[in-house]
């Protein structure tokens, strides 16, 4: 079946810009806030948001990459490959915005919360996702900033592509 | 592939190049973990590991134990000196008794070559060989390769010399297999009596002149003279060995290029290597120890991940 396009081009750009302004409403100039993207796919969104914010705020915004592999509860159930963690700041008493591309079962975010604590105790943690697949959660985790909410069934996959790695920015719904 | 081809780590000989690369890649992630303010991850929280050391060890045992604790595994330690082995219990009985207490993984050092493999065929647990006689010491070879890669990048075509007591050394054998699988050239150097006869059949070069070897190599891995295994005289005296095969600062400084100096420990200072060489900036001996924990975390993480 042909993949159904959920977001692309102008629409995706508008969505990202809206998420940035929503963040600024809460975090002002980001002086005490940091962004953490979850590996492997959340980091592209995190860095995109960082770049947009820096353009709007005209100042540096801190952004790190966090790998959750060693904190997952399903690592013996499927093959997982660890990625790089790259956080060169302390998150103690900071407002942390966790960023991932798709929120599905919530298990990655749960592992991410655990992994994040190895870098200190944040003041506050929020979650930003580009796509929220609602009614599919295994754990009670919800995002505060959401690009797009969709209803999907388990046999479907949401794929987020970025120009950095896949030539084109695009979000599609595909049948597995 | 993100999974090992084996259920146990018995030696380097029976694992693939892909396995070695996977372990070294994963170890990079763990090295980042052990340099964090909180050096612990919960990956193996549901695993119990028994460390069975039928032979003495400080570094390896501590390194394994730290690796297990940083992976949140439960650990039980056993050393032959204070156990029922002294009362005549067999290896298999000892291990089966320990496994009856629900242990998932066994890290074992034993003085008999093949002890780890013997065990892996008879008991239901993942086995990691922490040294079996003069046979293999796979995690040491992996951490040596990891440390060399950190210093030199890809090891393909690099020239590695292993110098000293090759005959009694499990480190030498595992290193040879590991380095060759990663594409490096290996040369062994030492007194003829301490070089096994068959060694050339493994595809390594043999050289008896230390200076020539050092001029050829990028890395010199100095092995310990195993004084406890010198039951017959392999060389006339320690002093003569030091004069011919000991690495000192003058010799190191007279070489045309800056080579990397390694030693698996424990060092006999002033015998195979002098103190000023061991503590020089060309020596990566303490990096090897740090990397040992990361590599062992990677090995146990990957073995535990196999269904």
- The DSSP helix count of chain A reads 4
- The portion of residues assigned to helices of chain B is 25-40%
CATH homologous superfamily designation of the largest domain in chain B: Aspartate/ornithine carbamoyltransferase
**Cα-based radius of gyration of chain A, to the nearest Å:** 16 Å
Query: What's the mean pLDDT score of chain B?
Result: 91
CATH class of chain A: Alpha Beta
Number of domains of chain A: 1
| Count of DSSP strands of chain A | 8
First-last Cα distance of chain B: 15 Å
Distance between the termini of chain A: 9 Å
Category by helix and strand content of chain A: alpha/beta
Structural commentary:
- The complex is a heterodimer of chains A (176) and B (307).
- Chain A has 176 residues and is an alpha/beta fold.
- Chain A has four helices and eight strands, in the order E-H-E-H-E-E-H-E-E-E-H-E.
- Chain A has helices at 9-27, 42-57, 107-116, 163-166, and strands at 4-8, 33-38, 63-66, 95-103, 124-134, 145-151, 156-161, 170-175.
- In chain A, the strands form two sheets. Chain A has a five-stranded parallel β-sheet with strand order 3-2-4-5-6, sandwiched between helices. In chain A, strands 1-8-7 form a three-stranded antiparallel β-sheet.
- Chain A is globular, with a radius of gyration of 16 Å.
- By secondary structure, chain B is an alpha/beta fold.
- Chain B has two domains: 17-136 and 289-305, Aspartate/ornithine carbamoyltransferase (Rossmann fold); 138-288, Rossmann fold, CATH 3.40.50.
- Helices cover 38% and strands 15% of the residues of chain B.
- Chain B has eleven helices and nine strands.
- Chain B has helices at residues 17-34, 59-70, 91-100, 115-120, 138-152, 170-181, 210-216, 238-245, 249-253, 275-278, 285-305, and strands at 48-53, 74-79, 105-110, 126-132, 159-163, 185-189, 205-207, 219-222, 260-262.
- In chain B, strands 7-6-5-8-9 form a five-stranded parallel β-sheet, with helices on both faces. Chain B has a four-stranded parallel β-sheet with strand order 2-1-3-4.
- In chain B, helix 2 (59-70) links the parallel strand 1 and strand 2 (74-79).
- Chain B is globular.
- The mean pLDDT of chain B is 91.
- Chains A and B meet through loops of A and helix 1 and helix 11 of B.
């Amino acid at each position: 079946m042909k993949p159904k396009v959920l977001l692309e081009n102008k629409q995706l750009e508008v969505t990202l810009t809206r998420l940035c302004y929503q963040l600024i409403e809460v975090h002002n100039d980001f002086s005490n806030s940091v962004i953490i993207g979850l590996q492997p796919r959340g980091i592209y969104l995190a860095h995109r948001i960082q770049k947009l914010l820096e353009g709007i705020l005209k100042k540096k915004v801190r952004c790190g990459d966090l790998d959750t592999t060693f904190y997952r509860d399903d690592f013996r159930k499927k093959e997982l490959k660890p990625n790089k963690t790259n956080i060169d700041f302390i998150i103690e008493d900071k407002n942390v915005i966790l960023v991932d591309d798709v929120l599905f079962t919530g298990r990655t975010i749960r592992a991410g919360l655990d992994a994040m604590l190895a870098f200190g105790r944040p003041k506050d943690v929020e979650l930003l996702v580009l796509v929220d697949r609602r009614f599919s959660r295994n754990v009670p985790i919800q995002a505060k900033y959401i690009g797009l909410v969709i209803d999907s069934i388990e046999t479907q996959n949401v794929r987020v592509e970025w120009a950095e790695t896949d030539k084109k920015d695009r979000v599609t719904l595909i049948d597995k | 592939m993100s999974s090992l081809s084996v259920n146990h780590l018995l030696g380097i000989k029976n694992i693939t190049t892909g396995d070695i690369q996977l372990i070294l890649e994963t170890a990079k992630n763990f090295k980042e973990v052990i340099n964090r303010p909180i050096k612990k991850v919960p990956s193996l929280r549901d695993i119990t590991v028994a460390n069975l050391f039928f032979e003495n060890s400080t570094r390896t045992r501590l390194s394994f134990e730290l690796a297990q604790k940083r992976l949140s595994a439960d650990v039980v330690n056993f050393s032959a000196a204070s156990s029922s082995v002294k009362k005549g219990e067999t290896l298999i009985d000892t291990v089966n008794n320990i496994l009856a207490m629900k242990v998932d993984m066994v890290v074992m050092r034993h003085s008999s070559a093949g002890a780890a493999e013997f065990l892996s065929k008879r008991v239901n647990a993942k086995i990691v060989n922490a040294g079996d006689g003069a046979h293999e010491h796979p995690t040491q070879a992996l951490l040596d390769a990891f440390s060399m890669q950190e210093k030199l990048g890809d090891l393909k075509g690099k020239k590695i010399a292993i110098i000293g007591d090759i005959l009694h050394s499990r480190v030498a054998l595992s290193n040879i297999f590991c380095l060759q699988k990663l594409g490096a050239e290996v040369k062994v150097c030492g007194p003829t009596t301490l070089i096994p006869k068959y060694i050339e059949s493994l595809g390594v070069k043999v050289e008896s002149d230390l200076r020539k070897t050092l001029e050829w190599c990028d890395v010199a891995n100095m092995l310990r003279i195993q004084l406890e295994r010198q039951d017959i005289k392999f060389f006339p005296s320690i002093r003569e060995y030091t004069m011919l095969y000991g690495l000192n600062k003058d010799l190191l400084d007279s070489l045309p290029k800056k080579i990397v100096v390694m030693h698996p420990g424990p060092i006999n200072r002033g015998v195979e290597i002098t103190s000023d060489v061991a503590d020089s900036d060309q020596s990566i001996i303490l990096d090897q120890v740090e990397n040992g924990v990361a590599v062992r975390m990677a090995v146990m993480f990957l073995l535990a991940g196999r269904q």
